[in-house]
Design goal:
Blueprint (H helix, E strand, L loop, with lengths): L15 H13 L4 H14 L3 H15 L11 H5 L3
Organism: Methylocystis echinoides
Protein name: Ribbon-helix-helix protein CopG domain-containing protein
């Protein structure tokens, strides 16, 4: 079963020399400039923003806590005892 993806077309402007060199490199990789730009943008968009990373790490940390009870806290005397 195949799913149809909605694709957006974009226009990118580069100077003639950059375009020429990109076409040469793409041909050497047996691909197109468009495919290379698509791969770059896909990887770029997939990168996790710092806030998203911290949010994910917090969720993972909370999920790793096996048990916690507020009653397990130390007494005031135990907290302030000197050893």
């Amino acid at each position: 079963m195949r799913y149809c993806e909605s694709m957006k077309n974009i226009t990118v402007s580069v100077d003639d020399e950059t375009y020429r060199r990109a076409r040469i490199k793409a041909a050497a990789e047996d691909t197109s400039v468009s495919a290379i730009v698509k791969r770059f943008l896909t990887e770029f968009a997939a990168e996790e923003a710092p806030f998203e990373r911290m949010k994910r790490e917090e969720a993972e940390l909370r999920a790793s806590i096996q048990s916690f009870r507020a009653g397990d806290r130390l007494s005031r005397d135990e907290v302030h005892s000197r050893r």
